[in-house]
Design a protein that fits this description.
With 228 residues, the chain is an alpha/beta fold. It has two domains: 127 residues, 3-Layer(aba) Sandwich (Rossmann fold), CATH 3.40.50; 85 residues, Rossmann fold (3-Layer(aba) Sandwich), CATH 3.40.50.2300. The chain is 55% helix and 10% strand. Strands 2-1-3-4-5 form a five-stranded parallel sheet, sandwiched between helices. Helix 3 links the parallel strand 3 and strand 4. Helix 8 crosses helix 10. The longest helix is centred in the middle third of the chain and has 22 residues. The chain is elongated.
Length: 228
């Protein structure tokens, strides 16, 4: 499956050209014309990397990046600044804000592809080396709480869903396994997928249910008949 990227830029011509080149290079590219639209795409699609301009109306690239770094779901998401601002002070500000790479316009598209591939490979290597490390803080405590919830399953469980949430078959499978106290590596093994993909599904479940932890997610699912 092609890696999904998010491109945020308010220049239609450049946005279309970069999207076309990246797609020709084998990526799936979603686009947004501004940071507000970019945030909506980010929550809906959980891309593996974000490329964003700095100079945008209303919310600029620095503010967009800060919003990502303050959100647990996107704190470690690779981000590339693609901008006409090439002064050293601007680059320093970007790196201090947590950007992973900085490519001033005009740029060689092959260089952008190389940077994207490098950041994605680095993220995959980090995920592999982390193995069973929790994807959220205090995972052990949350797993214990989930097991405690499971002992009360009969009291919490609803016979049929009480809320309408559109879950994909894979999201439902991940939810069922999370509700049984499995960690991401165990879920990945059962579903024959990567830990990183499981992290994406769990993040989407948090977003769709308005929860912020595995414990909250499991309680919500049991109380609303979303799992059995």
């Amino acid at each position: 499956m092609a890696e999904r990227l998010l491109l945020v830029d308010d220049e239609p011509g450049l946005r279309e050209a970069v999207q076309a080149y990246l797609e020709d290079s084998g990526f799936t590219v979603d686009v947004a014309a501004n940071a507000q639209e970019g945030w909506q795409r980010l929550e809906e699609l959980s891309p593996g990397l974000v490329i964003t301009d700095i100079m945008m109306p209303q919310v600029d690239g620095y503010q967009f990046l800060a919003q990502m770094r303050q959100d647990l779901r996107f704190r470690n998401l690779p981000v590339i600044f693609l901008t006409a601002r090439g002064m050293t002070s601007d680059r320093i500000q970007g790196y201090q804000a947590g950007v992973d790479a900085y490519l001033p316009k005009p740029f060689d598209p092959d260089e952008l592809v190389a940077i994207v591939e490098n950041l994605l490979e680095r993220r995959a290597a980090n995920a592999a080396s982390e193995g069973d490390k929790p994807d959220i803080t205090d995972l052990a405590s949350q797993i214990a709480e989930i097991k405690s919830l499971l002992t009360k399953r009969g009291a919490l469980l609803q016979a049929s869903p009480t809320v309408k949430i559109d879950l994909t078959p894979r999201e439902q499978s991940v939810l069922n396994l999370v509700a049984n106290g499995l960690m991401n590596k165990e879920i990945a093994r059962q579903l024959d997928t990567s830990v990183r993909n499981v992290e994406k599904y769990v993040s989407r479940l948090f977003s769709k249910t308005g929860t912020n932890s595995r414990t909250e997610l499991v309680r919500y699912a049991l109380e609303n008949g979303l799992t059995s």
